[in-house]
Structure formats: C-alpha cells, structure tokens
Design brief:
4 strands; 1 helix
Length: 100
C-alpha cells in the first residue's frame, strides 16, 4: 500500500486486516489498515479510520474512511465487537471439537 493516505506506525491498531469492498456491480477482497485514536490534547471524540489497499483496486480511487465516535458510541462498538468475537471463538471451538 505505497499510496496510503493513513499514517501507519507501530501504534496503528491493525496494520493488516482482511476487508471487502462492495459496490452495486462489484465485490473485491483487499488488505486494510484500521486505526482507533483520539487527539493527544483535549480529545473530544474517538476516531476510527480504515483504508483499503488500492494498489490494484480499479473501482475506487485512493481514499480513507473515518468515523467520529462519542465515548459512549466507542464503548457500544467495543462491547459489540467483544460479543461477536466471543461468538466466533465459541464456534471455532465447536468446530475444533467436532474435528477431533
């Protein structure tokens, strides 16, 4: 992702995640960068950003998405992510047990 808009550092939340870009007449899998941050001084929101690898993307120009969340929204998102992560882990455990 040489043409990145996001600054990727050792502190980036996820510098490689699986992503899917979907449009009315296309769907394509890509690598992505995901970062959750807040301003160092006087933060007033949590910033969730993500950028898909556009090196071979033909449908979208280089771009980055950003969602600005209140603390309550960030906590609600975190709780939902935890809940679904638990479900995925439980399902993987059931699959592992069935394979044994």
């Amino acid at each position: 992702m040489a043409d990145r808009l996001m600054r990727v550092t050792a502190h980036t939340t996820l510098d490689l995640a699986d992503a899917v870009v979907t449009g009315h007449d296309f769907e394509d899998e890509r690598d992505a960068v995901v970062d959750a941050t807040a301003a160092r001084r006087q933060p007033d929101h949590v910033k969730l950003q993500f950028e898909l690898d556009n090196m071979s993307e033909t449908h979208l120009p280089a771009h980055m998405e950003e969602v600005r969340l209140t603390p309550d929204q960030a906590r609600a998102l975190a709780a939902d992510l935890e809940k679904h992560a638990d479900r995925v882990e439980e399902a993987a455990g059931e699959t592992d047990e069935a394979a044994e």
